[in-house]
Input
Amino acid sequence: MINKSKTFAVAGGDLRQIYVAQGLAAEGHNVRIFGFDNYSNNIAGIEICSDIESLLADADYVVFPLPYSTDGVHLNTPYLSYSVRLCDIYEKIRTSMTVFGGRFSSRELNSRGIKTIDYFEREELQILNAVPTAEGAVYIAMQERPYTVCGSKCLVVGYGRIGKVLSSLLKGLNASVTVSARRFEDLASIRSMGIMPIKTKNIEQTAGEYDIIFNTVPAMVLDKSVLSSVKKNALIVDLASKPGGVDFNEAKALGLNVVWSLSLPGKVAPVSAGQFIKDTIVNIIEQEEGL
Output
């Protein structure tokens, strides 16, 4: 925990940002929040600001959301009725402030000597985020298909943080699970878990066997050749960040059901996901200050 009370300016984002703000306030910090004009619920214990000037006044830290922007020009503000340009915020940030954000960097701020930190790059957040992402993927499968996950033949493409958690969840639901990977050590690890391994380069050969395909790889792995083998009544859930891992145009032409699910932690478990981000930010500050 940070020993001295600080002032945090929490700007924009989805429900995760509210729980980031509440978590920081609960630890005794001064917290202001901006970008939630269209949020009807009460945000107790936090100063709500209607403009950037009051938000940033004497702030020690600025906390942008995950992702900080969806177009690289405007702040990500789904609960605000108007757009806010990043450049209009940047010009009001001072060198005494440290700026946090998810998938965030800014040459403009760095060139002025302002410290910026992408908290999404932290390993602890990546690991913790894998849990609500995997749970959300299973929830989508339950919503989209008129069959139980139990007994369904599932392919998980990729054995990274999300793939590991997701394959374990599916196995626990008594699905028939196959997991693809590139590295031999990962294939061995999959086999040791009692799950069927397959090389990612070979998924085209078995693509037609699966009821549900979950992609976790942020590269084009489900291309035209793979998609042409997929069953028409199968479900594809793409969990990869932009640009995704599915040829969406080809999938549409083939009439396949594809759900591209971004930012699942904020949608299915915003309280937990917000707590994870808050804890990560506090960890970074403690490390930076040698606490």
Q: What stands out?
A: The first strand starts at residue 7 and ends at 11. The CA atoms of residues 7 and 59 lie 5 Å apart. The two ends are 8 Å apart (CA to CA).
